[in-house]
User: What shape does this take?
Amino acid sequence: MKKILIPALLASSLLLAQEYQYEVTPLIGYGIAEGNLDLDNQFLMGAELQYNTDTLIKPELSVLYTDADYENSSVSTDIFRIAINGVYEFDKVGSITPLAKAGLGYETIDKHYAKNTDSAFADMGVGAKIPFTDAIALKLEAVYMLKNNNNRWDNNLAMLAGINFSFGAKAQEEREVEKTQEAPKIVDGDDDNDGVLNSQDKCPNTPENDKVDANGCTIVLDDDNDGVVNANDKCPSTPKGDQVDADGCSIVLDDDNDGVTNAADECPNTPKGHNVDQNGCSTDLDLHIKFETASFNVDADSLKRVKEFASFLKDMPYFSVQIIGHTDSQGREDSNQKLSERRANVVKELIIQEGVEASKVSAIGMGESSPIATNDTAEGREQNRRIEAKLLRK
Assistant: This one.
């Protein structure tokens, strides 16, 4: 009897020790882009599918997606990455399985600003799997990607985390082993009151009121997708896109100090001093270009401000500008009207010379009709001899 029992136990142990055939891992993470790309760091999401062969290197299919913003503009772009990798898993350290991987992939990007192109890339990374149960684990990865982008080499780094689900042959093998053994009689129950019988419960001490999966293990939920799980979330209905604190409650931020919070700000990099609308985008502003009486010459200080404003316009592809010239009340009204038009057109041409598309810039003159100060003093007249800019959304 012992001669039969011992080999049977050894065979069953070998079967139970085998790996599951497949692993799938939904992922979220954070991407850090190189400065050449002119892209803000971005939130990533995706998935990995691994096939557990008998070889040392295991094939993996990786897919990542992000909606990234170009720096200093309101333009966003979809980025898709797909890669085929080889994964090597080291011997376990305690219950943790370290891993390393490398492979090749291809990236597509729908808005090709900053000379960004669709291109192949090479990647390599390190990570670890930390088990919750026999078939569910936390998977952490850091993946470096090197892309040949328009005859230059650009670097990206992705920090990823996901829940790794294993399935396939192992479950079948375990059932085959069970068929060859005499199953003991079980008096079943549900000791942790989670709705899963003890005989099927892989997490027999689930905390009270936790939602569980078919194996009786806690499901980690985050209904408002703010990165704080429901159990710890004191603000469970945080608006999408809000940054939150450790309690899952919105942090009110206004990075460009324009009076419009980041969550509602469609123009998050408005220059200091600009008047903005309810969306945080610049409206009318004084370019602080002053003129001598009857003159349309732009001095060096004013020219510097014109260049700064032109640089701002180039980063705002969805806006055009109307340059408005004004005069004081000295002289004839018809002459002042022509002078204001001349001043506006001079500034318009200077802006175009700085590389702004001519179709985005128009000019009008208002003559002496719209003073902002009294014309009875020299100081007031100096303020009235001015250039204003009116930003218009296309």
The first strand starts at residue 22 and ends at 33. The chain has a mean pLDDT of 82. The radius of gyration is 33 Å. The CA atoms of residues 194 and 209 lie 8 Å apart.
